[in-house]
Specification:
This is MFS transporter. By secondary structure, the chain is mostly helical. About 80% of the residues lie in helices and about 0% in strands. It has one domain: Growth Hormone, Chain: A.
């Protein structure tokens, strides 16, 4: 669901709500409705990710007594239960935009029944056509390209750096038992950033400059207190990532929305893999503090790109 379908569904349903509330809106009214959709989407996506991060933190803490009580069997049962709850939540989601509503009406008019099967070749051709149309939209839209690249860099880089925070924390002199507490501090910064998503998004470029400075200063401090600055950097990255995702959704049509969002997810994973490789190579010569300081450069590059648009 995080591959693009969920994000597209949320944006499309918000658009449907705006059109239902003001079906005859034109001119300023339509612009106000579009601005509401963008702001609402940014808030929802940011807060849902903040809730997800919080759930991970709570689950990590809860795993200790669960394992002590029932071992891996209890932990596995809890995982299965969580998956079933996610499936139930997914089943409760709306049909999926205007296309889904039209399909539901057609099924209702024909008395239900199963969707007619299609040959594999036809399904592959249909998927290729969807991907082609999404690629065409990205090529034709400068804002879509910029938002896609920015989203991939922010999400991919923060996802990679998160894996190396324990090494940075350990290099500041923290004992091994204290490292999880440092991780909680950095995760809390990301939660705050996600919860504040949608506010003051006009200032994304200067905020990314602040994030870069906090990243470099916090890593170079050589003291556990520097992790507080790192938490600020992660929070700004989460906040800016939600804004970039909203810009991407604004820039494409409904037919290609899920596919374009999936492209962004693939780009983020690619950036994460590249960051893993760069960190592994750089660690031959540099300490974690220096590597984190260098990781601030993409934030500065992103801020510069936003200022030039």
């Amino acid at each position: 669901m995080r591959s693009g379908a969920l994000e597209a569904l949320v944006y499309t349903e918000l658009t449907h709500l705006a059109r239902t509330a003001a079906p005859d809106a034109a001119g300023p009214g339509r612009a106000a409705a579009a601005a509401w959709v963008t702001a609402a989407y940014t808030r929802l996506i940011g807060r849902s990710r903040a809730a997800g991060t919080t759930a991970i933190m709570v689950a990590s803490l809860a795993a200790v007594p669960v394992l002590a009580w029932g071992g891996y069997t209890a932990a596995g049962a809890a995982s299965i239960l969580a998956t079933l709850l996610c499936a139930a939540a997914g089943r409760a989601l709306p049909a999926g935009g205007e296309r889904g509503r039209r399909a539901a009406r057609r099924r209702g008019n024909t008395g239900g029944g199963r969707r007619p099967s299609r040959p594999l070749r036809s399904a592959v051709a249909s998927a290729a056509g969807v991907a082609g149309r999404a690629s065409a939209e990205i090529r034709a839209s400068g804002p879509a390209r910029r938002a896609l690249v920015l989203l991939a860099v922010l999400v991919g880089l923060s996802g990679a750096l998160d894996e190396y925070v324990p090494l940075l924390a350990r290099s500041t002199g923290l004992s091994t038992p204290a490292v999880p507490l440092a991780l909680l501090v950095v995760s809390a910064g990301a939660v705050v950033g996600g919860w504040l998503a949608g506010r003051h998004t006009r200032h994304t470029a200067p905020a990314l400059v602040v994030a870069a400075c906090c990243m470099a200063a916090g890593a170079g401090a050589g003291h556990p207190a520097g992790l507080l600055l790192l938490a600020v950097a992660f929070g700004v990255s989460e906040w800016a990532g939600a804004a970039a995702e909203a810009r991407l959704q604004d820039s494409v049509g409904e037919e290609a929305r899920a596919t374009v969002a999936s492209f962004a997810g693939f780009g983020a994973e690619s950036v994460t893999v590249l960051a893993f490789g760069a960190y592994a190579l750089g660690s031959v010569w540099l300490a974690p503090a220096a590597l984190f300081a260098l990781a601030a450069l993409p934030y500065l590059a992103a801020a510069g790109a936003l200022r030039r648009r």
